[in-house]
Specification:
- There is one protein chain.
- This protein is mainly α.
- The chain has 16 helices and three strands.
- It has a three-stranded mixed β-sheet, with no helix packed on it.
- A hairpin with a 6-residue loop joins β2 and β3.
- α1 packs across α6.
- The longest helix has about 50 residues.
Length: about 425
């Protein structure tokens, strides 16, 4: 009898394994395809604005149009990526209409020159589509949470080409200190399938930012890297505080959302004209490559923070992750050489360190460094990331993120990121 029960238990586990592999493949295929279209849409908007720089004058109108679009669709109070995190932790419902809305609004933001990324928007795309699939399949509340994480992982991977980072980030970002290990295989399968879909479309054929000048592991290099990690922590706090403060300041002085979006567009436009070029508009991926290639722009990290806070705080849509990477790269290429680190390597360290400080996801950040920059200098990347994580306090990009354990002691704190 006991043997029979054990066989039944193993058959049940095998059934669950097969079920989740099938669901994860479906999510990876569908979300991966949508994420590829989203990637192409944002790239099209960026190229069109590069050909016609005067499109930046559309910023006030674009901001108002985005607010109107969300109002017409009954999503004016949408909480962006925070709602996806809440859907995983508290099973809050995600509406399928979120996907086309954030798709259109993010493309419009980039077309007009708002400073935003796309990976944060991708989390909403993937989360809302996979949640709808889970409901359609009749999954219960707990299984729906895994489906949402699969969608997050597939979209992140298809957009960024980092399957390991995407899978672990989906499990790590919601509750820092508690990993949702039950979602490991589904997230890995979904993220890998999403990447394969993206590669079929011609994306992510190689390492995104290959770094050939990694510093050798020495005591001096460790001290230099730790020093840069301290700076990464401070800048990540500044980034998070600016992004969180901007919506409140806008709402305080401009309570009408339409007026707020239009004025925010005017402010970003005025800053663009003041700078004299569109270095800080859009994602800034091209600028990251210039910085890693040897350029150094002294105030770039501060200006990117300002542009991003003004854009997202006004009601434009997009993500924060690529602006975070831009900020980290600008900081690293400025401060790293002063500390004695190679220019290209210090830019990569800054990207990983500020990403960790802003997201509170150290394991994902280490995997991000591996997948974005190659395997050279990994102990130093990990050191910079660890220092940034520990010293960045309890600040974070996502207000729905919970930090479960203290960063300084082995004790339970369970507080939301500030």
């Amino acid at each position: 009898m006991r043997c029979f029960k054990r066989i039944q238990a193993h058959l049940g586990e095998g059934w669950l394994f097969g079920k989740w592999v099938c669901y994860a493949c479906l999510v990876g295929l569908l979300v991966g395809a949508v994420a590829v279209l989203f990637h192409l849409g944002v790239d099209w908007a960026a190229r069109l604005r590069a050909l016609h720089p005067r499109l930046v004058w559309l910023l006030p109108a674009a901001g108002a149009a985005i607010v109107l679009l969300y109002r017409v669709c009954g999503m004016e109070r949408d909480r962006g990526a925070n709602l996806v995190l809440a859907a995983v932790r508290q099973a809050e419902p995600l509406k399928l209409r979120t996907a086309p809305l954030v798709f259109a609004a993010t493309v419009l933001t980039h077309l007009a020159g708002g400073s935003a990324g796309r990976e944060g928007a991708a989390l909403q795309l993937g989360g809302s589509i996979s949640a709808a699939l889970g409901k359609g399949a009749g999954l219960d509340e707990k299984d729906e949470r895994i489906m949402v994480m699969c969608g997050m992982a597939a979209a992140f991977s298809a957009l960024f080409g980092t399957p390991l980072t995407a899978a672990v980030f989906a499990m790590e970002v919601v509750s820092v200190g508690v990993m949702y290990y039950s979602a490991m295989v589904p997230c890995l399968v979904a993220s890998t399938v999403g990447l394969l879909v993206a590669r079929q479309a011609g994306l992510h054929a190689a390492v995104a930012y290959p770094v050939a000048s990694a510093a050798a592991l020495t005591p001096v290099a460790m001290l230099q890297t730790a020093g840069l990690g301290v700076l990464c922590a401070l800048v990540s706090i500044l980034f998070c505080k600016a992004v969180h403060a901007a919506p409140g300041l806008y709402a305080r002085y401009l309570p009408n959302p339409l007026v707020r979006a239009a004025v925010g567009g005017c402010l970003v436009l005025a800053l663009t004209l003041l700078v004299g070029e569109q270095t800080y508009n859009g994602t800034g991926d091209g600028v990251i490559r210039r910085l890693l290639a040897g350029e150094s722009i002294p105030a770039a990290f501060l200006l990117k923070i300002l542009f991003t806070a003004l854009t997202l705080g006004a009601g434009f849509r997009g993500g924060e992750i690529v602006p975070v990477l831009f900020t980290g790269c600008a900081l690293g290429t400025l401060a790293g050489p002063l500390l004695g680190l190679p220019h290209e390597f210090s830019g990569a360290l800054g990207m990983a360190g500020v990403f960790c400080g802003a997201t509170n996801c150290p394991i994902s950040s280490i995997l991000l460094a591996l997948e974005l920059f190659g395997g050279g200098g990994m102990p130093l990347y990990a050191l910079c990331i660890g220092v940034s994580y520990m010293l960045s306090g309890y600040y974070g990009l996502y207000s729905e993120q919970k930090i479960v354990y203290s960063k300084f002691r082995t004790e339970w704190i369970d507080k939301k990121a500030r």
